[in-house]
Amino acid sequence: MSPTLSHKDSSRQRRLGPMNHCLDMKSGSLPPGTWEAEQPVDSIGGEGDSEALLLATGTRSPRGPRGYRAELSNILLLLFLYVLQGIPLGLAGSIPLILQSKNVSYTDQAFFSLVFWPFSLKLLWAPLVDAVYFKSFGRRKSWLVPTQYILGLFMIYLSTQVDHMLGTADGGSPDVMALTLTFFLFEFLAATQDIAVDGWALTMLSRENVGYASTCNSVGQTAGYFLGNVLFLALESADFCNKYLRFQPQPRGIVTLSDFLFFWGTIFFITTTLIALLKKENKEVTPSKEETKGITDTYKLLFTIIKMPAVMTFCFMILTAKVGFSAADAVTGLKLVEEGVPKEHLALLAVPMVPLQIILPLIISKYTAGPQPLNVFYKAMPYRLLLGLEYALMVWWTPKVAYQGGFPLYYYIIVLLSYALHQITLYSMYVSIMAFNAKVSDPLIGGTYMTLLNTVSNLGGNWPSTVALWLHRTRIVGLLKQSNFAKNLVALVLLHWMAIMWNLLSVLLLDSAVSIGRLYERCSLSL
């Protein structure tokens, strides 16, 4: 609904009811001849809750388990890298609200939503990031450093052109095509940086602490998104600055988009230089474990993993899991702006959420750090669906409480409470899936492996959002043909409730089979 992280987002359910007899693996032996029986499986958790995880002895500390305090500097560095990653995401996320204030069509909004697709397509070039690098400089730094330098240059260049693209310089209409192509490239670079950081996290942290990677990801991206979206929209708004920050009104905000881009481009340059000079990659990783296969072998391994039945089931489940959330996530904020709610007020509603968004991953990580991280994902799903219905009612209610001076205080309180509940469900699902992905990813092809799982999650959120924006404008589906936004949302949620039982079955089957990490071991042996 609001300009906050909703993408950047499978569960394991405890065995239920009459399905126990066919899915319970607590007792008994595996049938002879199965590959699970041929090699021991590491198990974590209590009775009946064991999850086969990838044996990654190459990333274990030779001194035994290490607490997070021993790796605090690495955790803080990861956190900072994810903050930098959130800046381009936040800036791109602010553009739809700026375009909506300029009365562009929902067709244009749907077209611009394609800029977020690089995070759903990065799997195509992730094997290159894993397989091509300068060993003397560092496997992950070989991509991280040049990518962040290019991002800095791109932001500085974009600062000289963005006012013309938005039509601010000459008072014309926005050039949506140019904006989409430009920010698509912007997000492409951010996605490449994400591959390098995700892969580096697997070797920067010990296996005991790798679960903190998901916390760094969620907290860092939230902070970066806040800086690039909420803070920017507030400081860019003349109304907000004149009302809260100035004594004398002026026609412009304190900063412009071009100023903001130039500032962060400079920050990228400085910090990337410091990382290149001062940070060394982990020397404790066993070379044979960290050295990857060639490009061809990496792509072969990727396709072998994708073809595994359990992986296909997992991917299909994640690709369909967010259909019921698409209208609520993609359209609600735009509809509120359309109904007269100032975009900077919507952005400011995210300010009280920042402490919640930072604390939530820390709380949720206690439940996702164990053997069943996907349990949280599935349990949060129905509550997020119900909040989608509440969003529809809120959009319907908005014009009824509007008055000439704006909206009453109680309206913003209700929106804020709705937003807070939405964030709890969103982060529960997001941290859960990120924790699972980090658990089963192997450093051998860490960037590719984790990117495969994260890409499926991102794509599962992006394609429904693009379709929802397009359908809202065209209404070509018979079920939605004579519907307003609220009815569209209700229809999507009802359809998704029909699919939720299939999701439950898929999760149970995945639970009773083997982990994706163990699937990786099997297919890697076949290459």
Descriptive account of the structure:
The protein is mainly α and 527 residues long. The chain has one domain: Growth Hormone, Chain: A (Up-down Bundle), CATH 1.20.1250.20. It contains 23 helices and no strands. Helix 10 (212-236) runs antiparallel to helix 18 (353-368), helix 18 runs parallel beside helix 20 (409-440) and helix 19 runs antiparallel to helix 20. The longest helix is centred in the C-terminal third of the chain and has 32 residues, at 409-440. Mean pLDDT is 73; it is low at 2-62, 286-291, 475-483 and 511-527. Keywords: Endoplasmic reticulum, Glycoprotein, Membrane, Phosphoprotein, Transmembrane, Transmembrane helix, Transport.
What is the CA–CA distance across the termini? 45 Å
Query: What is the mean pLDDT?
Result: 73
* Low-pLDDT regions: 2-62, 286-291, 475-483, 511-527
The count of DSSP E runs of length 2 or more, i.e. the number of strands, is 0
Report the C-alpha radius of gyration, rounded: 23 Å
**CATH architecture annotation name:** Up-down Bundle
**Structurally, how many domains make up the residues?**
1
CATH fold node name? Growth Hormone, Chain: A
Number of helices: 23
Helix content: 55-70%
Give the strand content. Answer: under 5%
Q: Based on CA inertia axes, which overall geometry fits?
A: globular
Protein name: Acetyl-coenzyme A transporter 1
Keywords: Endoplasmic reticulum, Glycoprotein, Membrane, Phosphoprotein, Transmembrane, Transmembrane helix, Transport
Family: Belongs to the SLC33A transporter family.
GO molecular function, one term: acetyl-CoA transmembrane transporter activity
